[in-house]
Amino acid sequence: MRDALVAAAFQLFLERGYEQTTVDDIVALAGVGRRSFFRYFPSKEDVVFPDHERCLAEMTAFLADSTDDQDPVRRVCDAVRIVLRMYTENPTFSVQRYRLTKKVPGLRAYELSVVWRYERAFADYLRGRLANLRDGTLRADVIAAAVAAAHNNALRSWLRSDGQGDASAALDHALGYVQSAFAAPSTPDGEEEAEDVVIVVSRRGAPLWRVVQEIESALEKE
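-> structure tokens emitted (222 positions)
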């Protein structure tokens, strides 16, 4: 039922356009009632992003299952690969959604809110792991933003190529910058070695999404 509703919705979005398609149109094509639609999707926007809740839950569980001896930065980098896999498992659908969100500002805003939730999950996990370090909260937020930026850079390049190429390799390359910049190896006695210093120059009071955008821009220039 859920898959049938998604398929019907995208068929109509492609034929008529997103704004011109109503929930009644979707359920009529799928052959179900409105109640069935809202059992699976709270709104028309949610049918465009049907797998994000499941992916967010899987990723959060993966982070929660980590142990204290695992490098938290590497763990978050592994977690974001779960998100990329959600997209690459169905390239045709992912490319169709990408094209649709480019045309509909409301969907683009919705997508950004979803990306923010992934980033917050990274930050929450890192805050717990880095709480005993100086500027632990700041480090957690910056690393989470960098991981999200690396993922978005690789994903968008893959989507722009119509789902061609190796998105996983592109993500590994981007995450290599994150790990080299933020990984903090320890000496045998447990004391932290001198850390690399990463300086991000941004306008005072700039929103976090702008900082992420600047990191993405830097990655694209590499």
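The chain has a mean pLDDT of 87.
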